[in-house]
Design a protein that fits this description.
The complex is a heterodimer. By secondary structure, chain A is of the alpha/beta class. Chain A is 42% helix and 18% strand. By secondary structure, chain B is of the alpha/beta class. Classes of the chains: A alpha/beta, B alpha/beta. The A-B interface holds A 1-5, 7, 26-27, 29-40, 43, 46-47, 50-51, 53-56, 83-85 and B 13-14, 17-18, 20-21, 24-27, 83-84, 87-93, 95-96, 99, 102-103, 108-111, 113, 115, 298, 302.
Chain lengths: 131, 352
Amino acid sequence: MSDKKIRVLVAKPGLDGHDRGAKVVARALRDAGMEVIYTGLRQTPEMIAEAALQEDVDVVGLSILSGAHMALAPRIMDLLKANGQTNVKVFIGGIVPDEDIPRLMEMGITGVYGPGASTEDIVKDIKNAVK
Amino acid sequence: MISLAETILRGDRLALARLLTQVENDTADGRAALDALFPHTGKAYLIGVTGAPGTGKSSLVNQLALHFRKQNQRVAIVAVDPSSPFTGGAVLGDRVRMKDLSGDQGVFIRSMASRGSIGGLARATANVVQVFDAAGYEIIMIETVGAGQSEVDIAKLAHTTLVVEAPGLGDDIQAIKAGILEIADIIVVNKADRPGIENTEKALKTMLELAHPTQRVFMHHGALTPALLPMGEGKKVRDDETNIWIPPLQRTIATDGKGIDELAQHIAKHGEYLRLSGDWAIRERARLESELDAALQSALMNQFRERVSEDQYNKIMDQVFERSLSPSEAVKALMNGKTSPQPSPTRRGRKN
C-alpha cells in the first residue's frame, strides 16, 4: 500500500517579517492534500537547503517580499544542487519585478507568483511540476 | 552496486532522507531496506515527548537537543503533526521552534504527518525511528501530535516518555489528563513563568500520589521528598526496595532553557533505572511485539484485499447500508468469501 504525498517546504528567506502570504499558501496546499513543512521567518539559504534535504521535499516554496530575490534565489538553487537535490522544484511568491522573472526562470526556478495570484493556479502548477 | 541500506550505514544524509520517504510511503524498497537495517537497530535511546497542543513540546525538544549536542551525541528528531481527515493534507510546523538546531550536522529533523493514524503517531513512525537508530543516531526524540487523553502509542515506542503540561489548561486538569498522565515517566511543567504554575503543579502532584500510593515508602529513606521542591529539583527517582519508578515532576521554561539540565538528568536517571530494573528489556520486547502485531495486521489486511474483490466488498457493504446485514455478520461473510450469506432468522423476520 503505497501512500505517496507531495511534500512542500514553505520558507521565508531574508529579513522581512511578513508571513501572511506564506501562511495562506501553506494552508491552500494543505487543502489540496499536500504535506507542507512550514519553517517560519528569517531563514538563511543554508537553513532552507538543509531543511529541504532532511524533509526530502518535492517542492520548495520561497516567500520573498524584500526585493532580495536575485541574491537569495541563486544561492538556494546552488545549495540544493550541492546537496544532490536537483529534482526539487522551486517556486517563488512575493514581490518580484516582471523583468526579473525570465532571469529567475533561467536559474531553474519553476514558477513566480506576485500579489493577486490565485492559490488554485499555484496548486495546479505544483501538481504539474512534480508529475 | 551498493544497496540503499549500505549507503545509510555509511552516513549519506540525502540517502537517509530519501529512505525515510520510502519507509513513510511503505514502498517495497523501503521495506527491503528496513529488513537489511534491522540487525543494526536497538542501540538508540528513544525519548517520547507528548502533551496537549501548545504546551511547548517543540520548544522543549529544541532545548533538549541542544543539551544532548553539548554531550556530543547525535540527535534525530521525529516530529508528528496531524493530517487533515478530509483532504489528507497537513501543515507540519514543528521546525519553526527548532531553528537553533539548524546548521548542525549532528541533528536530523524529520516532520511526519499522522496520515489518519489516531494514536498520536503516524503508522510509519516506529519504522522511521528504526532507520535513524540504524543510521547511528544515539538519541532519538519523538514528538507526538498535540495529544489529549488517549494518544498513548508513544509509551509503547519510547524508552522514556515525557508528558508536557503547562499552566492555564484549566482546573479540570486531573480529569482530562488521567489517561495521558499514566504513561508519563517524567512530567514536565513547561511555561513555569506563567501565572497558575503552583495550581497546575499541585494538581499534578495530587494525581501522581493517587496513582502511586507507594510513594510514601520514600519517606523511610530520609528527606528525599520534601513537600514542595523549588524549581529545578525534581522529585526523586527510584526506590531500591520496591524497585518502582515514581515519575518526577520538573518545571521548565523551554523558551529560555530553564530547567533543561535538570530534565536531562531525570531522563538519564530513568534510563539507568530501566537498565538496572530490567524494564529496558521488557519495554524493548513490548515495543517489538506491538511492531510485529502492526505489521501482521497490515499484512493480513493486504492479503484479505487481494482475496476479496472490490465488487464483493461493495455488495456486502450495500447490505450493511440497507440494514439487512450487521457489520459483524458482514465481516463473517467477507471472511468466508461468500457474497450473499444466509441472513439470520431475526433479520429475515424483520424484512418481511
